Amino acid sequence: MRILDWSTLDAEARRAALARPVQGTREDVGSGVAEIIATVRRAGDAALRRLTERFDGVRLDDLAVPRAEIAAARGRLSAGEIGALERAIANIEAFHAAQRLEPFALEVMPGVRCERIVRPISAVGLYVPAGSAPLPSAVIMLAVPARLAGCPRRVLCTPPGRDGAAHPAVLVAADLCGIDTIFKIGGAQAIAALAYGTESVPKVDKIFGPGNAWVTAAKQRVAADPEGAACDLPAGPSEVLVIADDSARPELVAADLLAQAEHDALSQAVLVTPSRRLAEAVAAAVERQSRTLSRRTILDRSLAASRCIVVANLAAAFAVSNAYAPEHLILEIEEPRRWLAEVASAGSVFLGQWSPEPLGDYCSGTNHVLPTYGYARAYSGLSVLDFVKRITVQELSPAGLVALGPVAAELARLEGLDGHANAVAQRLALLGGSS
């Protein structure tokens, strides 16, 4: 990992130091995704079967996961694995249950009542990629808040393996979370099926879940189409920023950086510290530990875009972090909670050396679907709120309209909207008032 001295960098060099790896996409991704979506809309299930054979190398007669396959999946997991899934689900449910909104009503002035009611999104699509590893944790992070929100239809799509089956850990996690509508479909074709519906796959209103460049492009395209489906939040490759001082253990900091760097060749790990000694020790520990990890090829590439930044003090470290707006922020410093008030932009924060980021990935209770690529400046991580709609209601009594109606009419005329003013004036005339 490169070590940079922040105080010696000019404005352009500082921007470069905080730049994410460029997400180079093939030139044909956009046109390829458009073609896939059009094909699925035109040919439905038949297109999904052809595309599954083309991209996943397996021919499926039935796209839906039968109940027998879900039941058999349990037998392929150990009691310890199932117990870990159950513990994670319990913690995530406990934290997310506290996020549910209650309706409220307020009389803002006599005769004028305003309310907010909450309704679940009627149908949601949950996409869980397969890639180089199964992601039962992604199932949990999507399915638990969807269930707590009360979404009546929850549809999960995940790619099949070469044997034509979905990964058993994904199926067991879905079953434990109450998901019983599962399809063995991956990639942009899964997003198209969820957004527009086919003979087998029901259309949904909003799509959640991570994916590769094709999945991301498909989500963006269907979200821009009024006939398509909304999507969850902007996301790119995973990333972590660690703020550490001389109290931190270099081996633990290095392990935290590597835990995120191993996700993807475009993942990024950043250390910000006021200690040059610590930066050098961490860089050495990263090199040592990376040699022992199985995803060394990925790490060689992601670490090339990772760096240690030496700053003057902790206040400067938090300024750098807020400018970067990391997906994951780890504070391995003395009295980390005292510094929490300085955090302005981050997806999720981990306080102290005993709070490693993988706990948030899997089982602490918080959600691991987080804004990346700097979007934490304006977006929050996934929560129950993303699965509901907040609807406002207003009700006026005759006395309330007489008292407040002239205000609305005056503002309408100010904006040149006499039709608005007339809708109020007509009622005030019936009540003997004036606008």
Structural notes for this entry:
The chain has 435 residues and is of the alpha/beta class. It folds into 3 domains: 29-231, Rossmann fold (3-Layer(aba) Sandwich); 236-380, Rossmann fold; 397-431, no CATH class. The protein is built from 16 helices and 14 strands. It has helices at 11-17, 29-43, 45-56, 67-74, 79-97, 136-149, 168-176, 187-196, 213-223, 250-261, 276-290, 296-302, 314-324, 357-362, 398-414, 418-431; strands at 2-5, 104-109, 112-120, 123-127, 153-157, 181-183, 206-208, 230-231, 239-244, 268-273, 307-310, 328-332, 348-351, 388-396. The strands form 3 sheets. A 6-stranded parallel sheet has the order 1-11-10-9-12-13, sandwiched between helices. Helix 2 (29-43) packs across helix 8 and helix 6 (136-149) runs parallel beside helix 7. The longest helix is centred in the N-terminal third of the chain and has 19 residues, at 79-97. The radius of gyration is 26 Å and the shape is globular. The model has no long low-confidence stretch (mean pLDDT 95).
